[in-house]
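Justification of computing resources. Each target in the renewal requires a structure prediction run like the one illustrated here; the chain below, 256 residues long, is used simply to show the kind of job we budget for.
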Amino acid sequence: MTAARTEDYWMEHSNVRVPPLLGVRDAHVWRIQLDVAHDMDFLRSVLPPEEQARADRFVSAHHTRRFIIAYGIMRQILAGYLGALAADLRFGVGDHGKPFLELPTHNVPTIEFNLSHSGSVALLAIARGRAIGVDVEEWDDRVQHLAVSERFFSPVERDALRALDADGRVIDGFFAAWSRKEAYLKATGRGITRGLHHFDVSLHPDTPAVLVADRLDVDAPSQWTMRAIAPRRGYSAAVVVESPLNTLLLFEAAVD
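Resulting structure tokens:
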């Protein structure tokens, strides 16, 4: 396995109840560590009964714990931006499965968010009044990367990945592409209903993350901004937000 690029710098923000200023052309991404010590009783208490029941349905206590941490801290962070109580937040689900905030909606501009988790890391992306999507993927060298790309990647992406395979960097390129494609689908809110082959993303480890083309929406590359994120060695991640994007800030979530 080749090494992922060094992880990004994450600013620690110790009190998620007082969030940093979020401008209308900015985006924030919060990293939530799922395998460090947390007050589990407190985090479980901010989840509504239906989410507690969902957590308890996991066969593994390990996965139950990670779910409670990810969703409990997500609620704390979102509540901070909204000036609300975490337990009071209510969510709806779009036509293709993307969650959105239903309550509260008073006295604040619309908060858009997206949560992704893989392995021991969760990422929460937040924007104000603009669609946003995020995806994080833990590298897995057991995946048949080229075979999977034949099924899910566009022809342009498959050619680029084969070139990386010749250089011994296929795992980096594969998960870079996968996270970027997932983040784009989440941002648009369409999910996989239109498939994965009709758009191309950059995937070379040494080039910026870009939505190169969308053959079902020719204006999409100018309407969406894509950024790669390095949450930890051995992980790939990306965030996609409606353009323009002035500033992307990365925060480490810490909840007492």
